[in-house]
Write a structure and sequence with these properties.
The complex is a heterodimer of chains A (112) and B (113).
Chain A: E1 5-7, E2 10-14, E3 19-24, E4 31-37, E5 43-50, E6 55-58, E7 61-66, E8 71-76, E9 85-92, E10 101-102, E11 106-111
Chain B: E1 4-6, E2 10-13, E3 19-25, E4 31-38, E5 42-51, E6 54-57, E7 65-70, E8 73-78, E9 87-94, E10 103-104, E11 108-112
Parallel strand pairs in B: 2-11
Antiparallel strand pairs in B: 1-3, 3-8, 4-5, 4-9, 5-6, 7-8, 9-10, 9-11
The chains are: A mainly beta (112), B mainly beta (113).
Amino acid sequence: SQQGEEDPQALSIQEGENATMNCSYKTSINNLQWYRQNSGRGLVHLILIRSNEREKHSGRLRVTLDTSKKSSSLLITASRAADTASYFCATNSGGSNYKLTFGKGTLLTVNP
Amino acid sequence: DVKVTQSSRYLVKRTGEKVFLECVQDMDHENMFWYRQDPGLGLRLIYFSYDVKMKEKGDIPEGYSVSREKKERFSLILESASTNQTSMYLCASKPRRDTGELFFGEGSRLTVL
């Protein structure tokens, strides 16, 4: 079953604009992670936020987590054409640390 | 630099064939995973392994088996391939600690005719 659900499914913006993607989940979590996938390639880890954190930054990425609403957002500032990819959230619900449950992803297209 | 290598990027097999997908990691990670990715369905966990010779079913294990004889290698086996197993297969690994970050291979795109 899918834990995270990204919104929107697809997003198209111009270079230089900011891109915001949202993720909702259903059960309590230990941490939430965001991954990026270029077309036809594997996933690359971007950032992890723990359940006791509210915001985290990494370069042009900003992630927020609202555990009361069971939601997270990923903001990419000053987007570039090279940011074009699919972005997935994944939740670790504890119990077993072995499993991540992924959402269906947001396809971001950044137009030059 | 960490590396997860999947032996085949593209495979074409016939219905009923036995298919092996190999994954090797060079990071001495205890945990390894096999996911399949389909349009509109995202990533779904097939099997995972937390140690040599140990395995656990994921969300969609039917039609698949796995083998973990050595720490660095995790194989996914389709005993009798079917057309509904046409998919992108992704292998991942992680160390046995709490961060949860997965390291992925480049994927193996399997087509079953």
